[in-house]
Amino acid sequence: MTKNQPHPLFKLATELGPLIVFFVANAKFNLFVATGAFMAAIVAAIIASYVVTRHVPLMAIVTAVIVLVFGGLTLFLHDETFIKVKPTIVYGLFALTLGIGLLLGRSFIAVMFDQVFNLTPEGWRRLTLRWSLFFLFMAVLNEIVWRTQTTDVWVSFKAFGVLPITAIFAACQMPLIKRFHIEEATAEASDSERGITGS
User: Fold this and answer.
1) pLDDT digits over 44-91, tens only?
2) DSSP assignment string, the chain
């Protein structure tokens, strides 16, 4: 199925919108109301993304499923621990998936992030290792923040801290991407070597 290319602001809105909803609902009500609103916003963002682009990135789908599971546990058991530990689970799962892929000699980073650029096998390996370590770092950071800070501080960190940290890290990978970038003519060979095609 052909993917449509939405305006960059649309992509930003679908990624940041649910977090803003989460932050505002927590400020006006409490974490449990915010969790329900966050779950609804995540579903709305997924639907909007599919309607506009006819495609939803794998990473967004996995994140949405975990949000719904842990958000549901938070509301059902009335225990805020579940929604707070959710990012740790998401980051840990991504780090583990990328790490296992490296051990198997395969790079799952392009599939996970729905990338549009092409790299050499060495470039994919290095990028995968970096993102795996980054996700591990974010999992540890989330644990430190929610266990040592108030709920309001953790919500603010989740809404306004995670995205800038991730954006800065992603920007820092551009030199590596440019260094190992290959032209479209040789992309198929690179895809097969990193284990994305034919699997």
Assistant:
1) 999 998 898 888 887 888 889 999 999 999 999 999 999 999 999 999
2) -PPP---HHHHHHHHHHHHHHHHHHHHHS-HHHHHHHHHHHHHHHHHHHHHHHS---HHHHHHHHHHHHHHHHHHHHT-THHHHHHHHHHHHHHHHHHHHHHHTT---HHHHHT----B-HHHHHHHHHHHHHHHHHHHHHHHHHHHHS-HHHHHHHHHHTHHHHHHHHHHHTHHHHHHHB--GGGHHHHHHHHT-TT-
